[in-house]
Structure formats: structure tokens, C-alpha cells
Amino acid sequence: MDYNTIASHLNNFKKLVESNGDKNTIAQQLGPLKLAATIYLEKPTSTTNVSDKVLKDLVLAREILELISLYSIKIKEIDSFERSFNQLRPYYYDYKSIIPASQLEFQIIGLNLMRLLAQHKTSEFHSELELISVDNLNNVFIKFPLVIEKSITEGSYNKVVHSKTDVPSEYYQIFCDILVDSIKEDIANCSEKSFKTLSLKDAEKVLLFNNTSQFQQYIKDRNWKVQGDTITFGNTDNQAVDIPSLQLIHQTLHYAKELERIV
Description:
Layout: H1 3-18, H2 23-40, H3 52-74, H4 78-94, H5 105-118, H6 122-129, H7 140-154, H8 157-162, H9 173-194, E1 195-199, H10 200-206, H11 212-221, E2 225-227, E3 230-232, E4 241-242, H12 246-262
Parallel strand pairs: 1-4
Antiparallel strand pairs: 1-3, 2-3
């Protein structure tokens, strides 16, 4: 497959994605593009004396992998995004001295940071940060996951929820949604272990719901018992408290999260 054929396939892929084309048709384009990026387009054996043809191939291969990465997020295939990002690593770190910078680079690196946060891979998150120069930490795409990570560490979960309205690009939204759902699950699990009962009003606030019908459905899904305006968790632990104040709820859950993080 020559350069022009590959470029034509990529152009068709972009048009289909931008027009929300048929998924099966798009999938048919993906196979040849993945092969092109990994096999047909030439890679250098070193970063010195690289021919113009190889440099041209590198830029096209990088663009293919970047667009596949973004499309993977669009269709919520996070594992596919992770694979594509790992294939992009040499383009962002090894070949950066020989090819022009990509306009999508920091957005995709930031999305990978969001993926790591959403998957609770904190140590990997910080390892990835070490690869980013200090000058680029204020880039809007990098700064966003940094702010999210700080909010999670502080237990400021409402900030994570509100961040969904201030994402630097639409692709960040899916990871914000995953994070919020994960935080709700963690809070619910901690609540069940820490408290015997909890008022509906406080539970709705601490679980970050702003929609009562969704909150009611969540209660049903977790099989919590509701008596009057109180949720009963069925916790028999003598250290669990009965109908705590909202301040105590936040303190208890924050300490529980900190303990999990340290362990």
C-alpha cells in the first residue's frame, strides 16, 4: 500500500467520522489504516540522517494513530484508545526531535491522563506526568486532569462533578462521566460500611445527585431499604454511626478514601 493510497483511506475515514457515518463502514476503514501505521509506513532505525520519505511516513502514521485514538474514545472503546496511545508513544517522545509537533499531541496525552484517573491507576498517572516538561503542565489539556486529580485527592468530589461542564474538549467528557460514576460507587460503598442509616436528603447530596428520580433509581439498584425519609444500610458494625451530620459524612468518607490511597 503506497503513501497516496493510505492518505486517501485516512481522508475517507475522517469524512465518515465527521459526518457520523455508518459504524460498519468506518470499521472497514480502520483495518487498512492500522496496518498502514504499523507495517506499510516506514520507521527510522535511528533519529539521525532520516530521509524525507521516512519523515513524511512518520507524520502520516502519527496522524492515523491520533485519529484512531480519538475515534476510540468517541465510540467508548477505552481499551482501543489505550492501545493506540501506546503506539503513539515513540512519535511523541522518540521522534519529536525529527518531526513537527502535532496539534493533537497534548490533547491525547491529557486524555490518557484522564484514562488513568478513571481507572484508578494513580502511580501510572504520576509516571506519565514525569514525561511532560514543566513548561507544558499549564497546557489546558494537561492542566485539566491535574486539577481533577487534585480534587479527588482532597475529597472535593463536587468539583469533579462540576468539571463536566468545563472540559477542554468533548472527548474528555466520557472520562469525567466514568470518574463521577466511580466516585458515587466509592461513596456508596463507604457509606454502607460507615453508617447504619442516612437521611435521604443527606444521601442525595453526598452521592452528588442533582436529579431526584435518578437518585431514587440508584437506591433501587443498590437494594437499599427506605423507611420514611431514612435509608437503612443494614450495617451491624458497632462503630457505624446512626444518621450522622453532613459534615461527619464528608469527614468519614474523606478519611476512608485517604486510607485506601495510602494502603
